[in-house]
Design brief:
This protein is mostly helical. It is built from 6 helices and no strands. The two termini are 15 Å apart.
Length: 144
């Protein structure tokens, strides 16, 4: 990707899921619910239950992919901490919450030590604050 990633444009949208699958399923679910309430028939109720199951299954599949990605990020960052940070700081950094680790992955190697130390001291109230504190953004274009 040619565009430089930063806080303003780092959100990852998966068009097939966010703009096609979920809107279609939600429209189908609402339409089916309206049909059930306007003129109740058992087959319509069955279709509504099936549609709800598809929506829930789609969310579950997306959450499983994100959970696998989070595990991979934790592993990658653990290796990066060992390579980039001083020993004591690297050991402390491995105890950070997953949200902090995910936010810190965008920081460059040069500013990682300072941001990790500030995170450990509790200077950031949220992962958004960590991301906003990053000056040299390390892009991640292969997220799911």
């Amino acid at each position: 990707m040619a565009n430089q990633q930063n806080y303003q444009n780092h959100t990852r949208w998966f068009p097939l899921f966010h703009f096609i699958l979920m809107p279609l399923l939600l429209v189908l679910m609402i339409w089916t619910a309206v049909c059930v309430f306007m003129e109740f028939e058992w087959w319509r109720l069955q279709l509504l239950l099936l549609t709800i199951a598809l929506v829930v299954s789609s969310f579950a599949a997306r959450l499983q992919a994100l959970k696998a990605q989070d595990r991979l990020i934790r592993l990658e960052e653990s290796i990066r901490y060992d390579r980039v940070l001083p020993f004591g700081l690297a050991a402390e950094a491995k105890g950070l919450r997953l949200g902090h680790i995910v936010a810190l992955r965008f920081s460059s190697d040069e500013e990682l030590a300072d941001l990790v130390a500030r995170t450990i001291r509790g200077e950031f109230g949220s992962t958004k604050e960590i991301k906003l504190a990053i000056k040299n953004w390390r892009a991640d274009h292969v997220r799911v």
